[in-house]
Write a structure and sequence with these properties.
Length: 322
């Protein structure tokens, strides 16, 4: 069974505003649970794209509950358990999606959290092109981004309107173009600036958003970049959504996207005492209140939720595709 989980704390009144999320989205924590009470590793969101086949771009985004920013040129599809983005075409521009909205991430972004995803490049017009999952996204041009170019090197960076600065050291593994490069450390291959070294090669990228030390980026569990430059810019973004950036002139596949609390290496199942069939989310505009009945993001599920709570408690299992 495909698990797409969104964990949040909100008032019952806000649930109707979140119906755009797909019916298969699951909330794991009892209403009234505060983020600080959850153990590190508790899943906030998970998508493995299983059980969905949609080749039409608009329909694929609707099925996933993703929101495309204005001016998006990328074409999206879901097939064989993979999310594909094609943006390697004349007239393409950088394209953005919101995948976990601020209404959910606002409270969790005030604490340490982790984002992880699988990335495979399928082609690009040149070696500088890239795609990435981004954090603290405002739906436009403000976000933190660990960008890995298809040609080999990458950086941890911040984009804020007209500001585009690197936060990692120029000699970190992610940025190196020698025997210290990521392609050498991870795969034992010599760095070759003339090739698309990451094309058709799966890599798992994990971003640990450490409030005290700043972001750290891991590739296949190897630390490749961390906060080392322009440290005054860490914490300067007040937005909190998680998104996807598909740069212009690149095609890429993404899979196994997850967001979890804290900085643990792997996500965990919620504790039985906090697990429920549904919950609601807290925002700065509406304080958390305990609903009189479980709430979900799909009306058909709402009608059946009361009868399903006892059976659903403690049944969520994390699955990671190899």
């Amino acid at each position: 069974m495909k698990k797409k989980t969104i964990l949040s704390l909100c008032s019952a009144a806000l649930c109707a505003a979140m119906l755009a999320l797909p019916a298969s989205a699951e909330v794991l924590i009892k209403a009234g649970t505060v983020p600080s009470s959850l153990p590190a590793g508790t899943l906030i969101y998970q998508e493995d794209f299983e059980g969905i086949t949609e080749k039409d771009s608009a329909k694929a985004l609707k099925a996933l509950g993703y929101t495309a920013a204005e001016g998006t040129t990328a074409k999206y599809s879901v097939e064989n358990g993979v999310f594909s983005a094609k943006n390697n075409a004349d007239g393409a521009s950088d394209s953005y999606l919101t995948i976990v909205p601020e209404s959910i991430m606002k409270e969790f972004s005030k604490r340490d959290f982790t984002v992880q995803y699988d990335l495979i490049y399928r082609g690009a017009a040149n070696l500088t092109r890239y795609a990435a999952v981004i954090t603290h996204f405002n739906g436009g041009y403000k976000y933190y981004c660990p960008y890995l170019r298809i040609g080999g090197e990458g950086y941890l960076s911040i984009h804020s309107d007209d500001i585009w600065k690197n936060l990692s050291a120029t000699d970190c593994i992610m940025s190196s173009k020698n025997e210290n490069s990521a392609i050498t450390k991870l795969f034992g291959e010599k760095y070759d600036a003339s090739k698309a070294q990451w094309q058709d090669r799966k890599v798992t990228i994990r971003i640990e958003m450490n409030l005290e030390k700043g972001p750290q980026v891991f590739m296949n569990d190897v630390l490749v970049a961390e906060m080392a430059a322009n440290q005054d810019l860490w914490g300067s973004l007040t937005s909190s959504a998680v998104g996807i950036k598909i740069g212009k002139l690149v095609d890429a596949d993404l899979d196994n996207i997850m967001v979890w609390t804290g900085l643990s290496d792997d996500p965990i199942k919620p504790a039985p005492e906090t697990t429920a069939a549904s919950t609601t989310a807290a925002t700065s505009k509406a304080p958390a209140v305990k609903p009189t009945a479980p709430q979900t993001f799909d009306m058909s599920v709402v009608l059946a939720a009361a009868a399903a709570v006892s059976a659903a408690a403690g049944t969520v299992v994390y699955r990671k595709k190899k």
